[in-house]
Write a structure and sequence with these properties.
Shape of chain A: globular
Structural class of chain A: mainly beta
Number of strands of chain A: 12
Number of helices of chain B: 0
Largest interface: A-B, 22 and 24 residues
Oligomer: heterodimer
Helix content of chain B: under 10%
Largest sheet of chain A: 6 strands, mixed
Largest sheet of chain B: 7 strands, mixed
Shape of chain B: globular
Number of strands of chain B: 11
Chain lengths: ~110, ~110
């Protein structure tokens, strides 16, 4: 079984400040990791994904995440946030053994303060 | 740009009524997923199709929920009878055989049961 923990349900950040959204996972097998963003009343959009290779993954909108196997973490970062980054962010995991079922965390609501 | 289509976007119904949601995946995507997202939580997989066959419906409440994908293209999710606890966002996603690790989400149907 696999699970995802997003430690912060809400994160307020001033505009142009850096942000880190935390994600830890649990799995007995090797995994693929994902970050999705959800704007109000919309579906989910993929920000970035880790499948293999370099542990630092760059995504859209200036976001990046680092896979840390020893700490079972996949934290999302952005060096300078904008008002338009206000949204809900979900970390997700699935196994890379052919199981395509995504397990999501409970989400982190990022609020940008002008 | 190809997108996953869902309708309706919003649905209000009274408890004990029947409701149905429709999803049209991206053309060529063989795998289709239905998720339920309760307010404040991450999406939870209800059912997964590979072409017209159900791959995983372990989390689908089969006493009231049903899903079909008769021709392996579009899909319908039905709830009969609806209960107050069914109020949620219902998300459809699809993935291609060439990139099963990435799921593309539709805008969702927000269901309110009164």
């Amino acid at each position: 079984a696999q699970s995802v923990t997003q430690l912060d349900s809400q994160v307020p950040v001033f505009e142009e400040a850096p942000v880190e959204l935390r994600c830890n996972y649990s799995s007995s097998v090797s995994v693929y990791l994902f970050w999705y963003v959800q704007y109000p009343n919309q579906g989910l959009q993929l920000l970035l994904k880790y499948l293999s290779g370099s542990t630092l993954v760059k995504g859209i909108n200036g976001f990046e995440a680092e896979f840390n196997k020893s700490q079972t973490s996949f934290h999302l970062r952005k060096p300078s946030v904008h008002i338009s980054d206000t949204a809900e962010y979900f970390c997700a995991v699935n196994s890379n053994f052919g199981n395509e079922k995504l397990t999501f965390g409970t989400g982190t609501r990022l609020t940008i303060i002008p | 740009e190809a997108e996953v289509a869902q309708s309706p976007r919003y649905k209000i119904t009274e408890k004990s009524q029947a409701v149905a949601f429709w999803c049209d995946p991206i053309s060529g995507h063989a795998t289709l997923y239905w998720y339920r997202q309760i307010l404040g939580q991450g999406p939870e997989l209800l059912v997964q199709f590979q072409d017209e066959s159900v791959v995983d419906d372990s989390q689908l409440p089969k006493d009231r929920f049903s899903a079909e994908r008769l021709k392996g293209v579009d899909s319908t999710l039905k709830i009969q009878p609806a209960e107050l606890g069914d109020s949620a966002m219902y998300l459809c996603a699809s993935s291609s055989p060439q990139s099963v690790d990435e799921q593309f989400f539709g805008p969702g149907t927000r269901l309110t049961v009164l």
